Amino acid sequence: MSQKSTTQGQIILRDSPALGQITVDMESFFTFSFWLAEELEDMVAEQSWQAVAAGSRSSGRLADDV
Length: 66
Hints:
The chain is an alpha+beta fold.
């Protein structure tokens, strides 16, 4: 069996001679990636998040410090 057939449907996230390979299932990776992108878009669209982001940028501090 060749190396190519055993890794079909997987993504190599890290390939290091010292640490070895880190592989994940391709479908699971893209499902997670798309979910994360949608969550970030929703967070940015919320008014409360925009206020926190604007406040931390203008004061140079996190909103919890205010």
